[in-house]
Amino acid sequence: MAFFQSKRRLMPDLADALRLAAAPTFALMAVLNAMARDGRADVICSAMPAGAPFGDMTVMYLLMSVFHLAPWVRRMRRGVPGS
Question: What is the secondary structure of 1-40 as a DSSP string?
Fold first, then answer.
């Protein structure tokens, strides 16, 4: 029975860590994708106009980073006194 108790405690901690890791990971991927933009994928992904500063994948990674900010906002709000 002790195994199940520790498993119940471990899984939420692991899920919290994954939630917190998502936003910075996607932000880093957006930065790396923007820096490594060399035009080879423009032939395949032609939705962006020519000369656009960011590619499709960079915009997608930025949006995913924003969508995954909720755990960080909740964590910061808990640290604010009076909330």
Answer: -HHHHHHHHHHHHHHHHHHHHHHHHHHHHHHHHHHT--SG
Structure tokens at 28: 């880093």
> Distance between CA atoms of 55 and 41, rounded to whole angstroms?
9
Q: What is the pTM for the complete model shown? A: 0.64
19-47 as b/e: b if 16+ CB within 10 A: eeebbeebbebbeebbeebeeeeeeeeee
pLDDT, one tens digit per residue, over 44-72 is 555 555 555 666 778 888 999 999 999 88
Rounded to 5°, angle at Cα 62 from 46 and 80: 170
The answer to whether the CB of 68 falls within 8 A of the CB of 19 is yes
Cα gap 75→23, rounded to integer Å: 13
